[in-house]
TrEMBL record:
Residues 2-52 form the NusB/RsmB/TIM44 domain. GO terms for molecular function: RNA binding. Keywords: RNA-binding. It comes from Sphingobium indicum BiD32. The keyword RNA-binding applies. The lineage of its organism: Bacteria, Pseudomonadati, Pseudomonadota, Alphaproteobacteria, Sphingomonadales. This is Transcription termination protein NusB. SUPFAM superfamilies: NusB-like (SSF48013). GO terms for biological process: regulation of DNA-templated transcription. InterPro entries: NusB-like_sf, NusB_RsmB_TIM44. The keyword Disulfide bond does not apply.
Length: 57
């Protein structure tokens, strides 16, 4: 889980050329492949908060 969040956070901060929704969706899909729906929702919420802080969107 930690690596999914790290990679997603990195992409949100360093890859402004990729849409926010695309990044979040991809990492939620990765989390869903390994964890239950609850954890996927956690990844979604956390990366959304990071995106709002880092990108202002």
């Amino acid at each position: 889980m930690r690596q999914i969040l790290r990679a997603g956070t990195y992409e949100l901060i360093a890859r402004a050329d990729i849409a926010t929704a695309t990044i979040i969706s991809e990492y939620v899909d990765v989390a869903h492949a390994f964890y239950d729906k609850r954890e996927s929702g956690f990844v979604n919420g956390l990366l959304d908060a990071v995106a709002k802080d880092a990108r202002g969107s």
